[in-house]
């Protein structure tokens, strides 16, 4: 049957695949949450509360933060120069991502729970924001795990990768090439020596 290592690799790849698809779910769910928030803001404004305008502004901010990926894609297509000052300004917007969005959305959800203005939809908007905040925490954890897996420690006595096996090029070449590899005498190298390299 399957070994334990193969089963663990299968579970890891299945989890990684699911977390990769979670980003798309979050994008759709974030836009939906912003629409619900905007609806709550409109309803509160119709009932003659000024606070509804602030909720609509919060909804627009959430919507903007949830479509930053599309705006980034648009900027990359339209502006070919990566040193354009627009990208420097846009980096400030992109700084607010992952766990930072989670903190902001948690604060926004508290607004809906503390001042519901008698609307049952306020509590739903607050719950949607809390759920979106939780999803961003999950994505932050995924990003953290992915970064840590890039720096795996290899136990002593095992070869890590093919390019790390040799400390020095002379270990690989041995005594087969006696000519120095400077640019001045590169033409003196033998074709067979280059192919062996």
Automatic annotation (TrEMBL):
Pfam families with a match to the protein in the record: TMEM72
Keywords annotated in UniProt: Membrane, Transmembrane, Transmembrane helix
Bilayer-crossing regions: 21-41, 53-77, 98-115, 121-139
Keyword Transmembrane applies: yes
Iron-sulfur among keywords: no
InterPro entries, per the entry: TMEM72 (IPR032055)
Protein known as: Transmembrane protein 72
Organism lineage string: Eukaryota, Metazoa, Ecdysozoa, Arthropoda, Hexapoda
């Amino acid at each position: 049957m399957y070994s334990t290592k193969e089963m663990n690799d299968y579970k890891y790849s299945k989890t990684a695949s699911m977390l990769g698809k979670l980003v798309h779910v979050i994008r759709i769910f974030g836009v939906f949450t912003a629409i619900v928030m905007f609806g709550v803001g409109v309803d509160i404004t119709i009932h003659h509360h000024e606070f509804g305008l602030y909720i609509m502004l919060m909804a627009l901010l959430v919507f903007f933060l949830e479509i930053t990926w599309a705006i980034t894609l648009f900027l990359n297509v339209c502006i070919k120069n990566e040193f354009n000052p627009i990208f420097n300004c846009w980096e400030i917007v992109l700084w607010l991502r992952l766990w930072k969005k989670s903190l902001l959305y948690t604060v926004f959800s508290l607004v809906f729970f503390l001042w519901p203005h008698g609307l049952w939809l306020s509590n739903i908007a607050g719950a949607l924001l809390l759920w979106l905040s939780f999803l961003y925490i999950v994505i932050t954890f995924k990003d953290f795990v992915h970064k840590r897996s890039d720096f795996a420690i290899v136990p002593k006595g095992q070869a890590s990768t093919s390019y790390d096996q040799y400390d020095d090029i002379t270990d690989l070449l041995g005594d087969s090439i006696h000519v120095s590899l400077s640019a001045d005498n590169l033409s003196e190298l033998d074709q067979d020596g280059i192919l062996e390299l």
